[in-house]
Specification:
Helix content is 0%, strand content 52%. By secondary structure, it is an all-beta fold. Strands 2, 4, 5, 6, 9, 10 and 11 form a seven-stranded mixed β-sheet that branches. Strands 1-3-8-7 form a four-stranded antiparallel β-sheet, with no helix packed on it. A hairpin with a 6-residue loop joins strand 5 and strand 6 (58-60). It is globular, with a radius of gyration of 13 Å. The chain starts with a strand and ends with a strand.
Amino acid sequence: QVRLVESGGGLVEPGGSLRLSCEASGFEYIPHVMSWYRQAPGKERELVAGFVSAGGSRRYADSVKGRFVISKDSMNSVSLQMNNLKSEDTGMYYCHAYGWWGQGTQVTVSA
């Protein structure tokens, strides 16, 4: 059974940092293409950052370029380092791989 488990969300003040982690299990192959999405209240889910190929190419939403970094921590896990967080980064963050979704971890940026 495929599972994606996120961790690391929380409440942080504007300008602060958080690191999210996603651990994948149950895949019959190495999940190279893993991504982070987020969904703010009343908005559609959007791509934040992701690996787009087994070669390690990455892409980022324009709104997070220069502030967020996605990394492959192991064959089955990725992390998202989020720096200089802004209130508009608030939302539920989801890990995604090959059509599978995690349950999400809440990130709230507020003073």
